[in-house]
Backbone:
């Protein structure tokens, strides 16, 4: 899940701090983490991949898993 990816790639970092580093809103990250968003914008995925130092496909897969878990 996206939450699991955050735990690995940004351990202990708050959503607020990560949002600031990414240039995103805290609400956007909250929605991704909780599976509210199933298909994020390509730019959002690229920002997260760059900041978290993981491949974009891994970010997309984690977000999809969070969305699937919510259903």
Residues:
């Amino acid at each position: 899940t996206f939450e699991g990816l955050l735990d690995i790639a940004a351990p202990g970092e708050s959503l607020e701090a990560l949002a600031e580093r990414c240039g995103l809103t805290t609400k956007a990250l909250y929605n991704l983490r909780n599976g509210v968003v199933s298909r994020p914008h390509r730019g959002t995925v690229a920002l997260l991949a760059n900041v978290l130092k993981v491949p974009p496909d891994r970010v997309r897969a984690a977000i999809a898993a969070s969305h699937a878990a919510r259903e």
In short: Residues 22 and 28 are 11 Å apart (CA to CA). The chain has five helices and no strands. The longest helix spans residues 56-70.
